[in-house]
Amino acid sequence: MPVTVKEFFEPQTNTFAYVVHDAATGKAALIDPVWIYNHASSSTRMDFAEQMLEYARALNLDIEWILETHAHADHLTAAAWLKQQTGAKVGIGAGVVQVQQAFKTLYNLEPEFTPDGSQFDHLFGDNESFMLGETTVTALHTPGHTNDSMVYLFDDCAFVGDTLFMPDYGTARCDFPGGDAGTLYDSIQRIHALADDIKLYMCHDYPPAGRGPEFMTTVAQSKANNKHIRAGVSRDEFIAMRNSRDAKLGMPKLIWPSIQVNIRAGQEPPAEANGVTYLKTPFNLNPAELLD
């Protein structure tokens, strides 16, 4: 029996999260859940994640996994809270170790933070498979946007993170630490080599005027119509386009609060001597100077 997919849209960050369950057994995975963060007040809400839980509970689903497609730079993950509620394991790509190493330097994190991926329950390697009920799930390493970017393939459903967007929006930026446009091109070719009828589920959508947010396309539609990497676009052409475009982009609004939480699998940084937890924001930082 196929898996059932339910999407949830968080409009402040234009994020899609998913509850995916094996129809035969009710075993479920939550993908890219959002912990809502108000940047102005530095306050949080968990109602988006609660909506996902309410849906799962209404269907009596057994949540076994919380899957991150990467350590997001545009929203905080609700993974730690959801693990506490469900007992599910939190998984991410093994490349998160490189992401942690880079950002431990950029944030000058506390010595006790160990950049070895141990904050997560499982680090997926390329082509690693696991069972969700009677469904085989395969984790595909798709770096280029970030070192830890993964696609999770459930039967005919692929959850692609930020690697690809809807065809009229294009592809992920490659200017974060560890990003590379040529590597992204190669990763997308791997996705486009999947069967044409595979459904590609987005992590974000930034719709142009005239349409609302959309969460799914197909391999065939992406190959034919993606504005950045449709069939016939060469690797060199893509690299030139991506590098030129990225040079003009501003940083995501929530990058600094998000990543220091997300590389901890959704845990807050440790409280300081006064019992208060603080999020760090570098002042006048050129990341390249610290990462050379």
Number of helices, counting only DSSP H or I runs of 4 residues or more: 8
Terminal Cα span: 50 Å
Helix content: 25-40%
Low-pLDDT segments: none
Structural class label: alpha/beta
CATH topology: Metallo-beta-lactamase, Chain A
Overall number of strands: 15
Model description:
The protein is an alpha/beta fold and 292 residues long. It has one domain (3-267): Metallo-beta-lactamase, Chain A. It is 26% helix and 24% strand. It is built from 8 helices and 15 strands. It has a 6-stranded mixed sheet with strand order 1-2-3-6-8-9, covered by helices on one side. It is globular, with a radius of gyration of 18 Å. It starts with a strand and ends with a helix.
Compact summary:
By secondary structure, the protein is an alpha/beta fold. The protein has helices at 47-58, 79-86, 96-107, 181-192, 219-225, 235-246, 255-262, 287-291; strands at residues 3-10, 15-22, 27-31, 34-38, 43-45, 62-67, 76-77, 89-93, 122-124, 128-132, 135-141, 150-154, 157-159, 199-201, 216-218. It contains 8 helices and 15 strands.
Structural descriptors:
292 residues; alpha/beta; Metallo-beta-lactamase, Chain A; six-stranded mixed beta sheet; 8 helices; 15 strands; 26% helix; 24% strand
Write the layout of secondary structure elements.
Layout: E1 3-10, E2 15-22, E3 27-31, E4 34-38, E5 43-45, H1 47-58, E6 62-67, E7 76-77, H2 79-86, E8 89-93, H3 96-107, E9 122-124, E10 128-132, E11 135-141, E12 150-154, E13 157-159, H4 181-192, E14 199-201, E15 216-218, H5 219-225, H6 235-246, H7 255-262, H8 287-291
Parallel strand pairs: 3-6, 6-8, 8-9, 13-14
Antiparallel strand pairs: 1-2, 2-3, 4-5, 4-7, 10-11, 11-12, 12-13, 14-15
Helix pairs in contact: 4-6
